[in-house]
Structure formats: structure tokens, C-alpha cells
């Protein structure tokens, strides 16, 4: 073997040995485990809750900042760490380069980080008052129920995406409104938050396409595994569209025709994107997440502005 080739082999062996003998993870690896890119949906939903309350943020900025940090980096980051720990055997098939299966997150560090952040989330949630704390408790419990045995709701293509949609869209919206109102949100806020959380089931189903092979190999019954990509994509899109149609109808009844028209236009654009998705559901799912889902969350914000002042606020 040429000297340069021998030196390359020695270097690779040295890096591998160092990687697997590390007793603690690097900070960059911890950040990768917490997946900052996933923090946006709950933080956006929290913002919708803040807007929908109709309350001025003056004097409430410390609580607002706390709620934003709690919903994104803390609770969502914790859920990602918990999921990666519980999914390490699945990720070894789907994405072996992730922190835990790759060995960059050694030993039980993934578990300890998830547990520490669970406790931290509950502690910070306590500062948001009883309604904010209650929502935090539900979010933390749901995150573990989704990923961990013996419950592991992720095994079901119906329950799994449902609980994630609730925690990503419904609970943060509720929390944001509760923080501003210093009490429970009204009927209008809860109704639209719940409808958009139900619609997020479809978003989470499309997200399952990237793990199709690993889910099939490990017995996870996601909708893409059970129904096949085409049918699962159709169910996901119907699941996203129907709640938005209900929101549009309610906005008309509630005297918000302009907002209803905007949400309708956003939904029509989603229909156009869905037609592209159906041509190649597995291949186009990431594209749809960048286009159709963006239109979906813009509709959320429009609806949040629509319900401001409803209910006597």
C-alpha cells in the first residue's frame, strides 16, 4: 500500500477510535440533537396565540420571551432529544449519521439531556401561571408518550401524528393566548387552535415519508407504511384541507369575511401544491413541506388576527 494510503487509513482509525471513546458530546452535537430547525412550528403557533388574544404586549415582554424560549428550544428541543433516544435503533437504519447512532452522542447522554430538559421545561412552565404550566405538563407528557415504550404512540399512524400536531400547533397557541390573558382563552381562540392542530396531523404524516424504510423494517405502522405513499399523501392533504375549510366557514359566520377570503386563497394555493405532491409523494414531500405547509401556517396567522376582539375582548 502506498505511504499516503497507509497514512489515510491510520488517520481514519484514529478519528473513529477518538469518536467512540469520547465520554461526553461536543456542544455542536448537542445542538444537532435538539434540531433547531424544528423549533419554528411551535414558536409560530405561540405567536398566533399571542396575536389572537388581542392583548397589548406592553409590560408582558419577559413572559412572552419566556414562553417563546419554552415552546421552541426547551419543550420542542426536549421532544427531539427524547425521540432520537427512543428511535436510535430506527435511526441506525434511516439516518445512521445522526448524533446517537453515529456515536457522537456517547453512552446515555441523549437520555440524560432529554430528562434534564423535561425537568427544566416544567420549572419554566411554572412561571407562566396555572394555564401555561398545565399546557407545559401536557406537552412534556405527550412528547414522552409519543416516543417511549410502552406507550410509544409513534407506532400508530393515527395517534402519533395527532399528538405531535397537538403539541406543535394547538398547545403553543393555547399557551400564548393564556399568557397574554392571564387566564383561559375564549371559545373562538380554542376552536381555531384546535382545528389547526387537527390539520397538522397531515403535516406530520408527510414528515413520516423520510423514514419510510426504517419504519417498515422496525414495525412502525405510519400511514405511508400502512397505506402506501400515494394514499397516505391523499389522506394527509384531506386532513389538512378540511379543518381549514371549517375555519373559513367560521370566519364568515363570525363576521370576518376579509380574513376568510385570505385563508381561502391560501388554501387554493395549497390545492395547487397538492397536485404536484401527488405526482411523486415520497420525492415531493420535502418540497411540499417548504411550500404547502408555509401557506398553511400563513393561514394560521391570518386567522389569529381574525379572532382578535371576538368574545368581548
Number of domains: 1
Count the helices. How many?
A: 15
**What is the β-strand count?**
0
Low-confidence stretches: 1-20
Beta-strand content: under 5%
Shape: globular
For the record, give the distance between the C-alpha atoms at the N and C termini, rounded to a whole number. 78 Å
**CATH class identity:** Mainly Alpha
Short description:
The protein is built from 15 helices and no strands. The chain has one domain (27-307): Farnesyl Diphosphate Synthase (Orthogonal Bundle), CATH 1.10.600.
How is this structure best described in words?
- The model is unreliable at 1-20 (pLDDT under 50).
- The longest helix has 27 residues, at 281-307.
- The protein has one domain (27-307): Farnesyl Diphosphate Synthase.
- By secondary structure, the protein is mainly alpha-helical.
- Helix 4 packs antiparallel against helix 9 and helix 10 (187-207) packs antiparallel against helix 13.
- It has 15 helices and no strands.
- The radius of gyration is 21 Å and the shape is globular.
Give the SSE map:
Elements: H1 3-21, H2 27-34, H3 40-53, H4 61-86, H5 88-94, H6 99-102, H7 109-126, H8 129-147, H9 159-181, H10 187-207, H11 212-218, H12 223-227, H13 229-253, H14 257-279, H15 281-307
Helix pairs in contact: 3-4, 3-9, 3-15, 4-7, 4-8, 4-9, 5-11, 7-8, 8-9, 9-10, 10-13, 10-15, 13-14, 13-15, 14-15
Amino acid at each position: 500500500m502506498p505511504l499516503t494510503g497507509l497514512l489515510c487509513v491510520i488517520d481514519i482509525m484514529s478519528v473513529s477510535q477518538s469518536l467512540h471513546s469520547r465520554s461526553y458530546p461536543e456542544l455542536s452535537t448537542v445542538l444537532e440533537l435538539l434540531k433547531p430547525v424544528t423549533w419554528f412550528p411551535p414558536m409560530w403557533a405561540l405567536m398566533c396565540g399571542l396575536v389572537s388574544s388581542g392583548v397589548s404586549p406592553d409590560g408582558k415582554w419577559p413572559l412572552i420571551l419566556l414562553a417563546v424560549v419554552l415552546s421552541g428550544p426547551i419543550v420542542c428541543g426536549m421532544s427531539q432529544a427524547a425521540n432520537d433516544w427512543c428511535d436510535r435503533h430506527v435511526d441506525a437504519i434511516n439516518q445512521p449519521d445522526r448524533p446517537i447512532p453515529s456515536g457522537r452522542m456517547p453512552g446515555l447522554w441523549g437520555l440524560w439531556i432529554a430528562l434534564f430538559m423535561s425537568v427544566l421545561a416544567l420549572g419554566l412552565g411554572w412561571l407562566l401561571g396555572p394555564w401555561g404550566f398545565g399546557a407545559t405538563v401536557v406537552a412534556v407528557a405527550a412528547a414522552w408518550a409519543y416516543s417511549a415504550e410502552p406507550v410509544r404512540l409513534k407506532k400508530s399512524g393515527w395517534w402519533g401524528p395527532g399528538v405531535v400536531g397537538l403539541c406543535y400547533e394547538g398547545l403553543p397557541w393555547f399557551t400564548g393566548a393564556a399568557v397574554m390573558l392571564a387566564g383561559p382563552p375564549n371559545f373562538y381562540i380554542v376552536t381555531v387552535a384546535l382545528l389547526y392542530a387537527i390539520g397538522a396531523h397531515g403535516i406530520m404524516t408527510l414528515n413520516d415519508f423520510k423514514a419510510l424504510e426504517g419504519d417498515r423494517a422496525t414495525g412502525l405502522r405510519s400511514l405511508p407504511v400502512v397505506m402506501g405513499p400515494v394514499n397516505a399523501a391523499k389522506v394527509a392533504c384531506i386532513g389538512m384541507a378540511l379543518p381549514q375549510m371549517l375555519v373559513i366557514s367560521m370566519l364568515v359566520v363570525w363576521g370576518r369575511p376579509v380574513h376568510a377570503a385570505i385563508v381561502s386563497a391560501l388554501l387554493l394555493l395549497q390545492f395547487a401544491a397538492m397536485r404536484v405532491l401527488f405526482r411523486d409523494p415520497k420525492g415531493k414531500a420535502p418540497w411540499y413541506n417548504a411550500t404547502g405547509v408555509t401557506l398553511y401556517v400563513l393561514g394560521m396567522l391570518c386567522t389569529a388576527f381574525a379572532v382578535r376582539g371576538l368574545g368581548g375582548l
